[in-house]
Amino acid sequence: MPNQDCLKIRVPEWAKITGVSYEGKKLSQVKMVDGYIQVNLTEIKKFKLEIFWTPIAKLERLIDRPDSASMKFGPYSLAVITKLNNPVSVSQNNFLEFSRQCLKENSETATLKGLSIMPLCQVNHEKYQLYVHLEK
Q1: Is 132 exposed, middle or buried (0-12, 13-18, 19+ CB in 10 A)?
Q2: How many angstroms separate the CA atoms of 54 and 133, rounded?
Q3: What is the spatial distance between Cα 87 and Cα 16, in angstroms, rounded to a whole number?
Q4: Which of 39, 70, 125, 133 could form a disulfide with 87, with the two C-beta atoms 3.0–4.6 Å apart?
Q5: What pLDDT is attached to residue 46?
Q6: How far, in whole angstroms, is CA 72 from its chain's centroid?
Q7: Is 80 helix (H, G, I), strand (E, B) or coil?
């Protein structure tokens, strides 16, 4: 039988939890178990929780081409806006700097090595690349 005093909220794989609060106060009885935040309901009287999370930026290597990757920022697949036919090369350090820039500007659109990068869902008529070559 499930615990009636516990609320479980699934944490997306693309997010990092930075806090949970109730009426502006950080909750002390919050646990992370098996990908879920568990909140003790005896601490709260109403269901008005605030969950703070930041998106995770990552390069996902392709299974069939380990020297290439797709770029992700939170739930978004990122596209490099370019007219180049050759694959754009990206290093892990450059991508980490890009992700810090996105977090600082609170935007999923930024530049990397002078190239514009944006979520694939925002690309309209621009020519883009979805996969990048990983620099060694």
Answers
A1: buried
A2: 26
A3: 30
A4: 133
A5: 65
A6: 7
A7: strand
- What does the alpha-carbon distance between residue 93 and residue 57 come to, in Å, rounded to a whole number? 12
Token pair for 3: 């615990």
| Spatial distance between the Cα atoms of 104 and 96, rounded to a whole number of angstroms | 12
Q: What is the 3-state secondary structure (H, E, C) of 33-57?
A: ECCEEEEEHHHCCCCCEEEEEEECE
Write the pLDDT tens digit of every residue in 9-52: 898 988 888 888 877 778 766 788 888 888 777 666 666 778 88
pLDDT (average), residues 110-129: 85
Backbone angles phi, psi at 105, to 5 degrees: -90, 0
CA–CA separation, 76 and 105 (whole Å): 16
pLDDT at residue 3 above 70? no
Q: Are 67 and 90 in contact (CB under 8 A)?
A: no
Report d(CA 61, CA 97) in Å as an integer. 18
- The residues that bridge with 61 in the sheet, in sequence order, are 69
Rounded-to-5 percentages of helix, strand, coil across the chain: 15, 45, 40
